[in-house]
Predict the 3D structure of the following.
Amino acid sequence: METEKLKNINEFEDKTLLIVDDDNPFRERLARAMEKKGFKVSQAEGVKKGLDAVKNNNPAFAVVDLRLGDGNGLEVVKEIQNSNSNSRVVMLTGYGNIPTAVAAIKQGAIDYLAKPADADDVEKALLANPNKKADPPENPMSADRVKWEHIHRVFELCNRNVSETARRLKMHRRTLQRILSKRSPR
């Protein structure tokens, strides 16, 4: 059953892959892993560099983070689809929700993965038959991990201000401080 859905990168003539993500260590790690899998990888760290890379290379595959330091990754997805409608684009995000997933698919993404996605999940999403339903992830984030990620994301967006974060999350400040002091769940 798995062989019906998943193609091999060697079945594609154009193996170019653009990774657009402002998380440098994650992007570098993913790029190395995808090169080992047979992709010809180029990288960009923001919307502007991503758009330039699309104009110069016109990639067959792309992995684009939704929120980038200089804008929204959907702009890059739209440009990729305008330049090559056969491109296979996977959207990545650290905080997935239904409206952004719908927007990504409408712009031309074939799948939508929550961070931290590993290279195997990304490869499966890029090479899967777009007409078939995707398999569930091998190691999905636990509910505790998703909650922890969301709390830390809001904390960062509030410039690490505990009181403001607690107010926005509608929780007691001391409860938030206890959560922030603990390590991330698996």
Remarks:
- The CA atoms of residues 40 and 134 lie 24 Å apart.
- The longest helix spans residues 143-157.
- Confidence is low (pLDDT under 50) at residues 1-5.
- The chain has two domains: 2-127, 143-181.
